User: Fold this.
Amino acid sequence: MIDGLCDGPCEEEIAVAMFYCDFRDQQEQTATNILGAILMQLLVRGEVPEHVRQVFQKAKGEVGGRGLRLPDMVQMLKRTVSILSQVFICIDALDECLPKHLLELLGTMKEVLEESPRTRIFLTGRPQVEAEITRYFTPRLAVPVIPKMHDIRRYLENKLEMDPEPVAMSDSLRGDILRIIPERVSEMCVGASIVPISCMILY
Amino acid sequence: MDNTTYRHSVSIGTGNVDCNNVTNSHNKIINVNNAIPDENPEIMQWLSPLDPRGRHQDVRTGRLDGVGNWFLETDQFREWRSKEGGADKAVLFCYGNPGVGKTYLR
Assistant:
């Protein structure tokens, strides 16, 4: 999706920032750190704008610390976004974020959006985070993600082509794989199963 | 303080052991003391210890071309992507159970 945004026809300069939440990294993935990683990607050609440099130097001068506080981060992010013509922010797997970090993150995104309404925010997560998202963003667009039969087939065909041991494959086994797995996956999704499909179809 | 220092550089010819080729030269080295040290890496580190680029590369590598393209054809994506919508169309939420392919949407 992110690459799609970058590849698309662009009549103006766009800035795209993304972040992948990961439950294994929950403690370090605080709202401030996530927003910092996003901000870094928005710095055009890696140049640090003066307003960011000023906050940095002020923090460095303070006794005992250079720790970055959320309010400073919010201000820096808002200012950085406001001077760019079009910003896309993509955050994946919100459900893997600790609840308190998630709320701060969404709250900041809301502030950014209020100041720069052209900003586009793309979020993914399990259905249960919808309540938090609705709390901050109403209205919002939503798309349910269900694996498509032809996507699964395509994926399986690719994996079969890359089979490291093709002699062990027969036409009938190949036919069964291409028929049964997509059917089962579709049944699972209709039944709102929580079995990760990727585990089934990945080698 | 003098910003200019001089260094004697000596090179000895190695081609002929009987010959002592000694070249003296003054290489002028200018120390630019008033240059701003590059603090950008320090600022980047201060902004965040997290770097999502590695993960993005993994996703990019693991994705199969064409899979997930349906998403780009949805009305919701088009409304979100178009600039006409304003703040009402600013947030797009894709939801689904684990493993359905949210990360790999195209």
Notes: The two ends of chain A are 24 Å apart (CA to CA). Chain A is about 50% helix and 10% strand. Residues 26 and 129 of chain A are 16 Å apart (CA to CA).
